[in-house]
Amino acid sequence: MMQNILAQWANKLAAIALISALTLPLAHAEQPIRATVIPASFADLVETARPAVVTIITTQAALKQEYRQHALPFDEFFRRFFEERQSFQKNKANGLGSGFIINAEGLVVTNHHVIEGADKITVKLNDGNEYLATVLGHDAKTDLALLKIKANKALPYISFGDSDKARVGDWVIAVGNPFGFGESFTAGIISARGRDIQSGPYDDFIQIDAPINKGNSGGPLLNMSGEVIGINTAIYSPNGGNVGIGFAVPSVMAASIIKQLEQHGSVERGWLGVEIQSITKDIANSLDLQQVSGALVANVLADTPAKKAGILPGDVIIEVNGKSIKNAKALSSLIANMEAGKSVELSIWRMGSKKTIKVILGQMSNKIASNGEQDSVELGLTLDEITPQTRKQYQLSADLTGVLIVEVKEGSPAAEKGLKSGDVIMMVNQEKVSTPSGLIEKVKEAASAKRQTVLLLVNRQGRQYFVMLKIKAF
User: Fold this and answer.
1) 217 an active-site residue?
2) Would you give the DSSP letter of residue 27?
3) Per-residue pLDDT tens over the stretch 315-358
4) Could you list the residue range(s) of the whole structural domain that residue 252 is in?
């Protein structure tokens, strides 16, 4: 009897010791670390966020949908998880994605790829009501879109938080509409930040392990305060299903893009006018840099904001408005997400000392951007050369030659003809083209000859077809 009592007390003492270990600071060689106790429930957070999460239902022609399925610029293992269903009887394809309301007047955020090419967009609220949506703007490079619905009443909404404050290991909740089952909430942690999965020029994803599946595209990623710190956009999936590796666009980037889409319907990206490269250990040593980070200026283009501000080849841009620059891509992304006309303060490393330069950003439109070249607005195409990187990114065949379409301006002649990111222009007026400048020159020649159209031979994931595109004099 006594032995049983002693055994019971020993078990109780062991349990008390275990609880204390979870709540008291843990010993560490440098500083104490306090363990975080798993939340008892996420119910309060879920109840607050649920009314603002919506289902996005799209309809479009089945042929357009077929092309779109093959045009996503991802490696085969990186997939966007937009649920697509085809109805061959009606020659229509329906899609299901997710989104969330960000103000009482009915602004809805989702992914660009959820609504891309849709003939009709319906937003279904948590209460079952459905509303037709209009597209205020979308941005393919960051995969974001802004919709508007009219409900004639104040709508529930959730707000953006600060993704820069999120840390690896923080709890997060992914919300969406997996497989059309209605809203679903899954919990996990942030696994990494700043992930580049080669889906676009400004990749800076938050990686999470919260389970997300088809239909979750465009849904919010919430922190423990119920704030949106990301938009669920892609998953890593060798088999097409969830394996616990998901990616979300950080809210700091998204909020800036959404603001511009609301105000302008498009994104007016900031532009410096420099050609840059990342810092290596050898370069850092040669420049007497203490850290292997920053963006080395290789060239300053003429008549640009950088030239006017006095930036020189050989300068290393190490900070923008006090924020450290990790590498060349980080600088490009940061500047591009700032509005044109904004004054920024650059900290640069020049000849062994730190220097501060203020620059008023230009607008990226009609400039060289992300290794791409854009023509005048008469066509509305952002073009790039086919390189080993873009060939892999857009899943182009090894023998395909031509000029890659990176982005198509909404409402442009190219958009009206259905041209899309990932298409390759092989010929202009039956003459082969291999560079953006060469293609633009062919179009200029046609315009100079008073032609109103050009004939393009386009390759879309292995299928070739001709497009007659209207042009105007340059």
Assistant:
1) yes
2) P
3) 999 999 998 998 888 888 888 878 788 899 999 999 889 999 99
4) 36-265
